């Protein structure tokens, strides 16, 4: 074989240089010293930066720095151009053979435009397809320093974050308000790399082993023959699976509770679910579970409201999040940890910490707050940010490590793998929203959609040609630590016996609910099982309920018209309720709550302004809701009786009882709009207030507007109904809203734990 020597290279064509001196000058270097060294080589210390590598953390494809403010545009220039930058005269007409002739294949602009359009969609996420995201900042309070060496948990450190909330089962265009688990995924752009906390709003999971994930997902997704129902668990395949696969029962109990129908992403807890292992500066480890606690309180819709919202505003949660951010009512969440000793058996108070279907009650191990996250900016471009963000539980930083939880272990594989299809190749970490906000020098090269123009010739280690760079870090220079945990055992497809208890934590959850929450839970089981066609599935799920709680089983069985079976496992008699699991407790700030101000077409603008001011002074958001759009005097109308819906608002203030407008929906029963005193009220307002009353929302009327109460059949002395002048009424509403709903209006209501 002949080896080509450099001298055999064809000589470059000689062109007479205009300026010999300029051409013979050495070309601009890569910016690093690259002295000849012996191989294999130790890296040059400290490794100098390599600007010519254009490592992806420093610039976006168009040159804007990462983390740049939203005003930095991906596209520039005042003229419309082709993708290659050529200015265009017209993009409305294809090139044709005459104005009435056929379109010419040579129309390069047409082909480029249509080809790009043909490929605009990417596959949606296989689960969690429907979601919404926001930017924010996390500020650590320093309390985690003693257990974790991560830089972003040091006192006062501010870290950029991006959060994506999601439903699990529905397609990307499905409704926000469905009964489902919600995803709560946070990317921390820390100085030591991206850390992703990819959690849910329910602290237990359906399955103990990741290998079963395709099974539960196939069961909950629309049934494969007719592809229905969309974004629902109320169908046979779901209940077939969870009733056979009883480790799902704790999660199912949570999903039948109001937790699965949150009012807002702002009012939802988040949980890391798995136990993680933290490492401190001294190398000591502890086991922790992560919790997000919303400062706005935890709150849900009621079931009827949820169903109405799905039709009225399928984007309800997305709109709510972005409206709140736009209004400056920034949602914020405390991050907390339950810290448990890193014991050999990895249990705490008898609870196996590797079993993701189990929680550790807060009463046994309190949640310690280690920082606060505030969401303060919505995405500039939904696709670029929310659709293209990728999360991965394996995105860890020094100080945070995984455990042997068999669910978590499988996730570590899945999240990278899925992006290859979803984001079209291995370079998804270069997409601006996914880029680390610290130097990245990974020596990964090429692949679809490579955006970096990497310099250097030696993307391998060891090397001498790039000066031995990059260096590997050690403990002192912030290297990631894999905790050297001892592992031994025979290869088996088994789980330890401690995973066998499938019911006691469902019992714990059910017994920790207040009466009203418990009633909602019972009805949810009845609704969902009532939607199953197969009686054998209902019967099998009743058997599971018998093993969870005899009373619950009896109530559901009665409503389904079936006998309540006897338990097949010993009753969990010693289950201590955990009051922390109830959502109805304490009071919360009312900032950002939405108040409808109902007025008539001729209501005095000064009265409306006074009511608006009172609402805003309380930190809440007023929505002037009137018979027609435009303005009333100088007051802008936010909603009309046609566009407004009760589900949009947390409470209402009727500033003036509106008379029926001529354009009122003719299908309304005309009689419904008449108060007993005979004064007619717009039937759309009557309907709205009736719904708000039924959904146990606070309602205030000014003394002159009490006719609306009569017309809507609302007793003036009912709990949570206030008849005051606007300023006093708003103060009263704020008090009522602090507990979210007027709980005593629910028929069962005695808001105390069982
Ligand atoms: Fe996920 N999950 N998951 N999951 N998950 C995905 O990743 C998967 C699990 C969670 O807003 C996918 O990029 C497996 C638990 C959230 O982008 C996929 C298993 C928890 C999100 C995937 C689990 C979650 C996902 C789909 C069992 C709570 C949305 C698209 C081993 C702790 C993230 C994607 C976002 C998304 C796989 C179990 C939460 C396919 C195999 C447990 C919040 O990779």
From TrEMBL:
<dbReference type="InterPro" id="IPR020835">
    <property type="entry name" value="Catalase_sf"/>
</dbReference>
<dbReference type="GO" id="GO:0005829">
    <property type="term" value="C:cytosol"/>
</dbReference>
<keyword id="KW-0376">Hydrogen peroxide</keyword>
<dbReference type="InterPro" id="IPR043156">
    <property type="entry name" value="Catalase_clade2_helical"/>
</dbReference>
<feature type="compositionally biased region" description="Low complexity">
    <location>
        <begin position="56"/>
        <end position="71"/>
    </location>
</feature>
<dbReference type="Pfam" id="PF06628">
    <property type="entry name" value="Catalase-rel"/>
</dbReference>
<keyword id="KW-0349">Heme</keyword>
<dbReference type="InterPro" id="IPR029062">
    <property type="entry name" value="Class_I_gatase-like"/>
</dbReference>
<dbReference type="InterPro" id="IPR002226">
    <property type="entry name" value="Catalase_haem_BS"/>
</dbReference>
<dbReference type="GO" id="GO:0006979">
    <property type="term" value="P:response to oxidative stress"/>
</dbReference>
<keyword id="KW-0408">Iron</keyword>
<keyword id="KW-0560">Oxidoreductase</keyword>
<comment type="similarity">
    <text>Belongs to the catalase family. HPII subfamily.</text>
</comment>
<dbReference type="InterPro" id="IPR018028">
    <property type="entry name" value="Catalase"/>
</dbReference>
<dbReference type="GO" id="GO:0020037">
    <property type="term" value="F:heme binding"/>
</dbReference>
<dbReference type="Pfam" id="PF18011">
    <property type="entry name" value="Catalase_C"/>
</dbReference>
<protein>
    <recommendedName>
        <fullName>Catalase</fullName>
        <ecNumber>1.11.1.6</ecNumber>
    </recommendedName>
</protein>
<feature type="active site">
    <location>
        <position position="128"/>
    </location>
</feature>
<feature type="active site">
    <location>
        <position position="200"/>
    </location>
</feature>
<feature type="binding site">
    <location>
        <position position="164"/>
    </location>
    <ligand>
        <name>heme</name>
    </ligand>
</feature>
<dbReference type="InterPro" id="IPR024712">
    <property type="entry name" value="Catalase_clade2"/>
</dbReference>
<dbReference type="Pfam" id="PF00199">
    <property type="entry name" value="Catalase"/>
</dbReference>
<feature type="compositionally biased region" description="Low complexity">
    <location>
        <begin position="31"/>
        <end position="42"/>
    </location>
</feature>
<dbReference type="GO" id="GO:0046872">
    <property type="term" value="F:metal ion binding"/>
</dbReference>
<keyword id="KW-0575">Peroxidase</keyword>
<dbReference type="GO" id="GO:0004096">
    <property type="term" value="F:catalase activity"/>
</dbReference>
<feature type="region of interest" description="Disordered">
    <location>
        <begin position="1"/>
        <end position="76"/>
    </location>
</feature>
<dbReference type="InterPro" id="IPR024708">
    <property type="entry name" value="Catalase_AS"/>
</dbReference>
<keyword id="KW-0479">Metal-binding</keyword>
<feature type="binding site">
    <location>
        <position position="125"/>
    </location>
    <ligand>
        <name>heme</name>
    </ligand>
</feature>
<feature type="binding site" description="axial binding residue">
    <location>
        <position position="415"/>
    </location>
    <ligand>
        <name>heme</name>
    </ligand>
</feature>
<dbReference type="InterPro" id="IPR041399">
    <property type="entry name" value="Catalase_large_C"/>
</dbReference>
<dbReference type="GO" id="GO:0042744">
    <property type="term" value="P:hydrogen peroxide catabolic process"/>
</dbReference>
<feature type="binding site">
    <location>
        <position position="411"/>
    </location>
    <ligand>
        <name>heme</name>
    </ligand>
</feature>
<feature type="compositionally biased region" description="Low complexity">
    <location>
        <begin position="13"/>
        <end position="24"/>
    </location>
</feature>
<dbReference type="InterPro" id="IPR011614">
    <property type="entry name" value="Catalase_core"/>
</dbReference>
<dbReference type="InterPro" id="IPR010582">
    <property type="entry name" value="Catalase_immune_responsive"/>
</dbReference>
<comment type="function">
    <text>Decomposes hydrogen peroxide into water and oxygen; serves to protect cells from the toxic effects of hydrogen peroxide.</text>
</comment>
<feature type="compositionally biased region" description="Basic residues">
    <location>
        <begin position="1"/>
        <end position="12"/>
    </location>
</feature>
<feature type="binding site">
    <location>
        <position position="422"/>
    </location>
    <ligand>
        <name>heme</name>
    </ligand>
</feature>
<feature type="binding site">
    <location>
        <position position="213"/>
    </location>
    <ligand>
        <name>heme</name>
    </ligand>
</feature>
